[in-house]
User: What shape does this take?
Amino acid sequence: MCVFCQIINKQVPAHIVYEDDKVISFLDIEPIREGHVLIVPKLHVDSLDKLPDDMIAGVMRVAKKVVVAHREIYGNEGYSMMQNGGKYCDFGHAHFHVFPRYDSDGFGFNYPEGESEYSEKVAAKIIEKLI
Assistant: This one.
């Protein structure tokens, strides 16, 4: 059983900040900064596309509550929310990171070398699959 399932089943301790029938949220044990929480659907899947829509909606509802709480507690200028899926889901259980952001926090994305195509052709390929 994965560590997130163990937390959901109360077999492993965690600093839980929110829980309902679809989602649990707790402090990340390796926070990017104070207030960094994980929002974890209670269904064990490794990717967003495998989650039922009601669970995704539940994650977003909790994310909104966390963002508001962060602003009230920390007075942060913004926030980041991240999720890695499939083979890049390091725990094998979908989870969403939410943490406060500040102008001087130094957090950012590292882009790979080289160019990626930005074109109508790329948009058309994605549109075709979304329709």
Observations:
- The chain has a mean pLDDT of 94.
- The longest strand covers residues 96-101.
- The radius of gyration is 17 Å.
- DSSP finds three helices and five strands in the chain.
